[in-house]
Design a protein that fits this description.
- The structure is a single chain.
- The chain is 77% helix and 0% strand.
- By secondary structure, the protein is an all-alpha fold.
- Helix 4 packs across helix 8, helix 5 crosses helix 8 and helix 6 crosses helix 8.
- It is elongated and about 70 Å long.
- The model has no long low-confidence stretch (mean pLDDT 81).
């Protein structure tokens, strides 16, 4: 129905609440954007999650959406920023989890297994303590994200909050962890 429309016409129809215009934009750009994100992330599920998050935000803000350039430039810029946020929010925690996992799996191969075991136990204890010190909602989001490996969308649905709220709590928890666990970062 809307295949012959320009992106800009579709955006105007979207602002008027025409969900089929949104569908057309989604299907025009979804696969291209997933490939674009995949070039950096090397994970199809993560790439799809990021693209879905951007389109969800567009849908939620459709009535107040202001696009000053072409829609294609807007959507690629949005996806790039969400990708960078994703990388930043996962990098610190993933670094600590990898460190803990590496030390745990290498304990039996290590020349100094006792020292590594103590380090691992201290790090795990510090992560647990830091998690307990987080505010309630940040703690819930952090546990669902980093321990239970829920996607941001799943967390938002589980806790009945927006994607933006989930992203805020993840960023807050990671900043807190980074500061609290500073002594383990060598």
């Amino acid at each position: 129905m809307y295949k012959g429309f320009t992106d800009e016409q579709l955006v105007e129809l979207l602002k008027q609440g025409k969900d089929k215009a949104f569908d057309e934009l989604y299907f025009r750009y979804r696969d291209l954007l997933v490939r674009f994100v995949y070039m950096r992330m090397k994970s199809v599920p993560v790439s799809e999650e990021i693209v879905q998050e951007v389109f969800t935000t567009i849908w939620e803000r459709r009535k107040t959406l202001v696009i000053q350039k072409k829609f294609s430039a807007y959507i690629y810029t949005s996806v790039r920023y969400v990708t960078l946020d994703y990388i930043k929010s996962h990098k610190i925690t993933d670094q600590y989890i990898k460190e803990v996992s590496d030390r745990s799996s290498n304990d039996h191969n290590s020349t100094n297994a006792t020292e590594d075991s103590i380090y691992y136990e201290e790090l795990q204890e510090a992560v647990d303590k830091a998690t307990l010190l987080l505010p309630k909602k940040s703690k819930e989001v952090f546990i669902l994200s980093r321990i239970k490996h829920y996607s941001n969308k799943e967390i938002a649905e589980e806790l009945n909050v927006s994607h933006e709220t989930v992203k805020y709590h993840i960023a807050y928890a990671l900043k807190f962890m980074r500061n609290y666990l500073g002594e383990f970062n060598y």
